[in-house]
Amino acid sequence: xxxxxxxxxxxxxxxxxxxxxxxxxxxxxxxxxxxxxxxxxxxxxxxxxxxxxxxxxxxxxxxxxxxxxxxxxxxxxxxxxxxxxxxxxxxxxxxxxxxxxxxxxxxxxxxxxxxxxxxxxxxxxxxxxxxxxxxxxxxxxxxxxxxxxxxxxxxxxxxxxxxxxxxxxxxxxxxxxxxxxxxxxxxxxxxxxxxxxxxxxxxxxxxxxxxxxxxxxxxxxxxxxxxxxxxxxxxxxxxxxxxxxxxxxxxxxxxxxxxxxxxxxxxxxxxxxxxxxxxxxxxxxxxxxxxxxxxxxxxxxxxxxxxxxxxxxxxxxxxxxxxxxxxxxxxxxxxxxxxxxxxxxxxxxxxxxxxxxxxxxxxxxxxxxxxxxxxxxxxxxxxxxxxxxxxxxxxxxxxxxxxxxxxxxxxxxxxxxxxxxxxxxxxxxxxxxxxxxxxxxxxxxxxxxxxxxxxxxxxxxxxx
Length: 464
Known about the structure:
- The protein is mostly helical.
- It has 2 domains: 2-80 and 426-463, no CATH class; 86-416, no CATH class.
- The protein contains 10 helices and 7 strands.
- The chain has helices spanning 2-50, 83-113, 121-137, 142-200, 204-220, 280-315, 344-348, 366-373, 385-425, 429-463; strands at residues 60-66, 72-79, 224-227, 233-237, 240-243, 251-258, 261-268.
- The protein has a 3-stranded antiparallel beta sheet. It has a two-stranded antiparallel sheet with strand order 1-2. The protein has a two-stranded antiparallel sheet with strand order 6-7.
- Helix 4 packs antiparallel against helix 6.
- The longest helix has 59 residues, at 142-200.
- It is elongated and about 140 Å long.
- The two termini are 25 Å apart.
- The model is unreliable at 1-22 (pLDDT under 50).
């Protein structure tokens, strides 16, 4: 009987020790999960700190969750973002990039016209008209005739220079369009590759690359994006798809000339109609090369033809000191500002410049006076020479001011959106260092718990 009771007591003792081991094992598992969770949080926080200056990086956060079996676990690593803000930022970036390019190029155009500097057309025109007034007051002066010839040459050179500079700028813009379309195509191909990688194995780093490519493309042109549940992105422009995970539709540049007018358009490689690119740097470049610069050149040509035609009409009716008439002051085959020039005869011999209305009246300066008075006549599309030219200068100046205003307001909008984005997606070193200390302390506490559990386990085992 005593032997039976002794055995029963030993069995109960073993059961107690076994249950103790099982309880300690549960505590150990809780502690192990805590170590793993906080180690993951430390790694994620360290990654955030390391990428604080990495372009396109979005902050990661470890989601810790309480487990039903007690303890803590890592639920997921979340890439923090605001999709609505990202879409708005992409749209406003497209607009801002256009405004900035508008301002840059239109300022260059303003510099080409050079108003109100001495080299500007207004000042050159004034000196040209005044030279005729001086000749009208002293019609027999050879010096006055030479001065009229020289001022005419300066006027012609000014027209030629402005035309040449505008055309050179336009050619540079067309070259820039080709370069930017090449950039677009590179980004499109990169997007396709990233999409394929995301489809095979999505990761936060790939999603960062994807979003950065969207930002770069937004700087260049107007786009719309649609994101799938798996993270792949579809990009389109003007209602036409540019890229998916298995499709990339590159762009091509087409330069054509019709009726002497050069036009640059962008097509999809398999498209039949021009793509309507109205935002981003490309939108600005296309608008300026196809609309603005041709308009300015056309107005410059109109002014040059009108001046040449009216001056020649009056001058050819006059008589010079030798009694000759029917002489054109400007070349009679002028088509615009590019070939605007003083006639070869006048250039070689300014003494043939006419001043009198009648033959054998060398003291008559009425023809020269009539040429001088042309500046007050509305013969350029119902405007005076100065009014017509100043309307062009005002048009350019207004666009500079408008684009400057839009740039400043656009910068404020983009900055506000970036601040909203950074408040969620951006890395704050102060916040990350706080998180690092918090998780480090929790990790250290868990390691101490591991040591305590190990001691408890050894105690129980020694009792066996």
